[in-house]
Amino acid sequence: MANTTVENSTSASTPVAGDGLVIKDLHVSVEGQEILKGLSLSVRQGEVHALMGPNGSGKSTLVNALMGNPSYTITGGTATLNGVDITTLPPDERAKVGLFLGFQYPSAIPGVSVANFIRTALISLITPKARSEADLLDAEGRVKADSPAKPDLAAPTYVGRGGVARSNPAIKEYRKNLLATLSMLKMDSSFATRYVNDGFSGGEKKRLEVLQMAMLKPKIAMLDEPDSGLDIDAVREVAAGVNSLRGPQLGILLVTHYQRILNYIKPDVVHVMIKGRIVQSGGAELAKELEEKGYDWLRTDFMDDAETGDTEVEHGDA
Ligand code: ADP
Ligand code: MG
Description:
By secondary structure, the chain is α/β, with parallel strands linked by helices. It has helices spanning 59-67, 91-97, 114-126, 133-136, 151-154, 169-184, 202-216, 232-245, 284-293; strands at 21-30, 33-43, 48-52, 72-81, 84-85, 99-102, 109-113, 157-159, 165-167, 195-196, 220-224, 251-256, 269-274, 277-282. The protein has two domains: 16-108 and 203-305, Rossmann fold, CATH 3.40.50; 112-196, no CATH class. It contains nine helices and 14 strands. Helix 3 (114-126) packs parallel to helix 7 and helix 7 (202-216) runs parallel beside helix 8 (232-245). The model is unreliable at 1-13 and 304-318 (pLDDT under 50). Magnesium ion binds at residues 59-60, 104, 224-225.
């Protein structure tokens, strides 16, 4: 190929697609207090990493800071997803790069159905600039003339011959996909029409986070204590849902306080975080060790105040 010139502009150290989520020496403050004190961690697509640690060690701080929650300020270090610096992007742009956060305490949105909520999130993912449905649709629910959205999924209905409203084929397709995903996750189809987390049990809330993950197809999903407050049957249901989504395209950072859920979701790597730092990483056997020994043996002398008040209370995290 004598006439072909190959561009070679990327250096060997440039982060690339296969790198997944790469966090280096991350420092995060909340209300002026430093919570994460230089944390490094990498999760590739296809891997499951468990992040364990006592309450208050900074697990939720990490995932919220990575998702762009404005309460958490990144004061140092880097975080990239497949080579893209996510630390300066607004949360919806981070989602577009392929990051997802399943919340520890999901909020209820009375009046908004699960089906419409997830559809809005999908529209936002495929839309270059829109920030909300209000940016996309006018008061009558039609796609605005200057909307950057693809009109198909955003348009609630279209008017067929003779002025008769027909249901939009893109929305039909979406509903079919949603129902198929609910069925795959062994969730009742009535979930689609219920209001988001309104009157949901703890287990239903966490399963809705898994449903969102399934529909939005992130590259890296962070799940913040998908097991907290659940009885053992609910933990197994959530775990089965997560397992059904495992595959080479999805990397998972599974945050948990207890080893229990890791009996059902086998992690490739386990990290232990204490006081804003990773103090130990290992294979799945590290979680077993923690179950037997607790976290105390990993607390080291540099951790001045040795009280994280961590006791094995099943529903203690309020
Ligand atoms: P974990 O998820 O490991 O239990 P967190 O990240 O929730 O730990 O908390 C770590 C520390 O940061 C705690 O001291 C907590 O009080 C503080 N913190 C976390 N989020 C907030 C917040 N939104 N406002 C004030 N303090 C916070
Ligand atoms: Mg937490």
